Please model this.
Amino acid sequence: MKIEKLDATGLLCPLPVLKARKRLAALAPGDQLHMRADDPAAVIDVPHFCAEAGHVLTDSRPEDGAELYIITKGG
Model:
């Protein structure tokens, strides 16, 4: 399993999700994207994006003043 990291702090909606989509496109199913974001809308946008795109939001937790989203790419 490959783990890709993305720092989307300082970016506002819809940029964190757009950048996540681009990074996930280059990954294989089962790989993970660890994305940090501090946009308040991301707590709604990221789970919605995962559900719509067939990915799994494996975890979401506060980390260093932002939220860490662990997204597992769907198949």
Remarks:
- Helices lie at 15-25, 42-53.
